[in-house]
Design brief:
521 residues; alpha/beta; 2 domains; ten-stranded mixed beta sheet; four-stranded antiparallel beta sheet; 16 helices; 33% helix; globular
């Protein structure tokens, strides 16, 4: 292995970003010699790692959750730094090939089996079904043209340039949160606006306050603040439920100290043309610091692109309340046992029993009697997450698995496909997964004394992973921090609960907006 070198100037540059020399060298060692992938033991399934809540208990769970909402304990956390570039990836190449974006040329190419041409034609033929149609028509008119005329003439390249190009609407560079997803009374709603509407149904306290926090890309906070103000004015003017609501919104950037080094082909740190180190965003796992700095109590975490229109929102709201109630019940049981342990009132036995039967700590890990008090206290006093999982329908992303720990024991974890070894045995376990992770989490991040946990303590650093990327055509090895709901929460209490597929309506490509769940039918 080549020993990576850092100069005094490098170390000074890193310190200015908040990255210590020790952490920088750790990153380079990891890039040069990453640990083996996580080893899956088996998928989590119903009855073996995944729980199905009893319908007879729904009312009690929702009632329990309503009490927490009324007292102002709930915050919603939405990672929203992603751009919409992937959403429009199948259309963007035609910005550079305007002659190929004429309808007659596209039709001939599609007939010959060109999937790119087929996508552009499908997009154009369904244009009026997208919530941003009226905005596009106004933007075209602002350029002295007619959208109807451009479509009639078959000039689809012009239409794409207005929608995606930097001179007009620039949707290819727009944060996905600010793209109109749904049509509604009063006008189109962005993904940001839909998250505000959804929050009305499960975060609004007795004083009509809704707390939400969005992580955004560098340079985007001002635009988010403006667009969120517009969205709130729109909602308060069009939704009776929002008329008296005070939205307490927070915005934060991914911290520069969470950026990571990259490795060039020679095993040395990747450098820019001026000799400076290349530092890359460390992936969504870097947002653990943002979550920690919320100083919140109960936090719902949800992807920015997973929102439903009004007509299909009810199941989502119901299951948010049920998951929240389930977490509160579990949290109270854990807290009772921790208080008994703290008071030295002979609670070791019940605490150990709870760890084995409810939290699935393997019996062989239980120490000798003289060590059980400290063991039970340390094992119980951790952050808690309840993760909704849906039946696997082939969507890309991670899933719930039993994963082997350092001591050979198994723990419940969310694992992405990219983290799994390519051996036949491990790929068979991946293929056998029955459920999928839609990023539908509710988290308890304060301890039984009401103090915030130090979330960094519960990260598994070995779950970071190395991926092959490039920078302006130059290949490199990139380091991804342990994922926010993967390795960053590896040592939390993790419970998986089955939720219905109606609660999951992601938008990964623009064509997902044509699905019934986004068309309100």
């Amino acid at each position: 292995m080549v020993e990576a070198e850092l100069s005094p100037e490098d170390l000074g540059h890193l310190r200015n970003r908040g990255i210590s020399p020790r952490d920088a060298r750790r990153q380079l060692r990891f890039l040069n010699a990453p640990p083996p992938p996580q080893r899956l033991l088996r998928p989590c399934t119903l009855g073996d790692g995944i729980r199905r809540l009893r319908p007879g208990g729904y009312v009690a769970l929702e009632r329990r959750f309503s009490e927490a909402v009324a007292s102002g304990r709930i915050t919603k956390f939405v990672p929203a730094s992603g751009a919409a570039s992937r959403m429009f990836r199948s259309l963007s190449p035609y910005l550079e090939r305007p002659r190929e974006a004429q309808r007659d040329v596209l039709e001939a190419a599609a007939a010959a089996g060109d999937s790119g041409a087929t996508n552009v034609l499908r997009f154009a033929d369904n244009l009026q079904r997208f919530a941003f149609y009226d905005d596009l028509r106004e933007a075209v008119a602002g350029l002295g043209a007619s959208l109807g005329g451009a479509l009639h003439q078959g000039d689809l390249g012009f239409v794409l340039r207005v929608l995606l190009g930097p001179e007009a609407m620039a949707y290819a560079r727009m944060p996905k949160a600010l793209i109109p997803f749904h049509s509604a009374d009063g006008g189109p709603r962005t993904a940001l606006a839909e998250h505000l509407v959804e929050a009305l149904g499960y975060t609004q306290d007795k004083d009509h306050r809704c707390r939400l926090h969005f992580t955004v890309a560098t340079g985007e906070i001002a635009r988010f603040e403006t667009r969120s103000k517009e969205a709130i004015e729109y909602l308060q003017g069009n939704l009776e439920a929002a008329a008296e609501t005070h939205f307490e919104l927070g915005f934060s950037l991914q911290h520069p100290a969470t950026d990571t080094l990259a490795l060039a082909q020679d095993g040395q740190p990747f450098r820019l043309s001026d000799g400076q180190l290349l530092l890359r965003p460390g992936g969504h796992g870097a947002l653990l610091r943002n979550l920690h700095e919320l100083n919140a109590d109960l936090v719902f975490i949800k992807n920015v692109d997973n929102v439903a229109p009004d007509s299909l929102r009810l199941p989502t709201l119901q299951w948010k309340r049920r998951l929240g109630g389930y977490l509160l019940d579990l949290q109270e049981e854990i807290f009772q046992r921790l208080r008994a342990l703290e008071n030295r009132s002979g609670g070791e036995g019940k605490a150990i029993e709870f760890l084995v039967e409810e939290l699935r700590i393997e019996p062989q890990l239980i120490p000798s009697p003289e060590s059980r008090w400290s063991f039970a206290l340390e094992q119980l006093n951790r952050p808690i997450r309840v993760c909704g999982v849906v039946a696997n329908t082939g969507e890309p992303g991670g899933g719930p698995f039993w994963v082997e720990g350092k001591n050979g024991s198994g723990s419940r974890q969310i694992v992405e496909a990219a983290q799994i070894d390519e051996t036949p045995e491990q790929q068979e376990i991946l293929a056998a997964a029955t459920h999928f992770n839609p990023v539908d989490l509710v988290c308890g991040i304060r301890d039984f004394r009401g103090k915030p946990f130090n979330l960094k303590r519960y990260v598994d650093p070995a779950t970071a992973f190395v991926s092959d990327k490039d920078h302006h055509g130059r290949p490199l090895k990139a380091l991804e921090q342990p994922g926010l709901w993967n390795g960053a929460m590896a040592h939390w209490h993790t419970l998986f609960v089955e939720v219905p597929s109606e609660t999951f309506s992601p938008v990964k490509t623009v064509f997902d907006l044509l699905r019934p769940e986004h068309q309100g039918s």
